[in-house]
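For reproducibility, we list the full input for the flavin mononucleotide complex.
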Amino acid sequence: MERRSEQMNITTFMLPAGYHKDSWRLPGSRAEELGYLDFVLELTLMAEAAKLDAVFFGDIVTADTILRNDVKMNGLYEPVTVLAALAARTTKIGLIGTISTTFSEPYNTARQILGIDHMSGGRAGWNIVTSSRGNSNFGLEEMPDPADRYRRATEYLDVVTKLWDSWDADAVVTDRESGVWADTEKLHRIDHRGEFFTVQGPLNMRPSLQGRPILVQAGSSGPGIDLGSSFADCIYTAQPDKRLAQEYYANYKRIVTEKGRNPAQVKILPGLVPIMGDTVAEAQELADHLAAQVNMEFGVRQLEASHRIDLTGVDLDDRVPVERFPAKLATSRSEIFRRRAFDDGLTLRELIIEDARGTGHGFFIGTPGQAAEYMIDWFDDRACDGFNVNAPFMPGGMQMMCERLIPELQERGYFREDYSGDTLRDHLGLDDPAPVIARS
Ligand SMILES: Cc1cc2nc3c(=O)[nH]c(=O)nc-3n(C[C@H](O)[C@H](O)[C@H](O)COP(=O)(O)O)c2cc1C
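The corresponding predicted structure, in tokenized form, follows.
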């Protein structure tokens, strides 16, 4: 295995309740403050001090998860507003937020993400999702089927990127003498007419300091990969198994190349939940302690909902009978769930704990040094270009990641000691997509 010349890209999934389900029950969790600024700001400043590429906020537009007592998944932050607040209190770290293409309009989204970009000096990213639920809050009887959602998302991305490019980089002239602030010849209508949207343009905002905000995508299905490989700069993915991650990586880079894009310019970042201690025994003790927080009754209901499966009457210490799985699995994560249940023979209790730890993502139990070696092995072996690290509990898990794990990677030369640029595009090592205006 050859050492790669570049360094890892690392973002963190910002879930202030802690990524491990029910870890907010621990006495030091500050769960009283979920949804407010100060706590999430402190966590973000920790990530910035560790020189991470970005903090990432997921989003769903329904209270379904909180109604099942799944506090973590709800997030409790609306991405655009929290990122705008964080933009004002941070200077370097990238700010990635989720907006669903199914429940919004491209002109609004183009402005919101570009607004965060401007407020932060070129540090915004948009995580594009098509949402698997939320219809009842938007006047829809049912969710549109995935193919329709992705068709809409593809046209949506086309519109948003055209709007972001609707001002030439040098359109703002600020000519006091003539009274011309923007050279209107350099603002272009997009005149988009499509299946879902009719948008004249141009955008009513000056262009991005990083050329364009960063696009992030996490689809794993055929249409999801098609969208991501066409537009995205970063790909999030749930990959608990190294060999499968390598296959996914090779396949994704091949598709990107076939589309005429440079595969090195599309960063693949699987999730990872590091559960760490000074010794392996301490890390295992922490993992057991976190597992002991999990409410099994809620866990059953959450698994039923995530995988659309009926678990009534299944004993926690039994395996899930094969006939309980629907012929057509609910999501790509359900595939992993089924594999763990059948190929690996986990009991329902073990499945609930595994779901609580990783929710489909890989997790690691060991010392910070071992976690760093594990990450390096995946990186050098081309299973990824870095990671989206999910702190298992807050604030301690974030602190451990930033103050113990990252230094182990830095010592080995696999992660930056300081930021070398000001924009998220700089941190990710991505080329400018179009001529950019002077960064002074
Ligand atoms: C790290 C990660 C973060 C995600 N964040 C969100 C999110 O915030 N909101 C959401 O609706 N879906 C989110 N998803 C789900 C994806 O958008 C996507 O629906 C899922 O990976 C299944 O892929 P598919 O839509 O191609 O079937 C996330 C997935 C991953 C791996």
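Residues 9-134+144-275+362-428 form a domain with the TIM Barrel fold (CATH 3.20.20.30). Residues 58-60, 98, 129-132, 218-221, 224, 236-238, 271, 331-332, 388 surround flavin mononucleotide (CB under 6 Å). Both points were considered when choosing residues for closer inspection.
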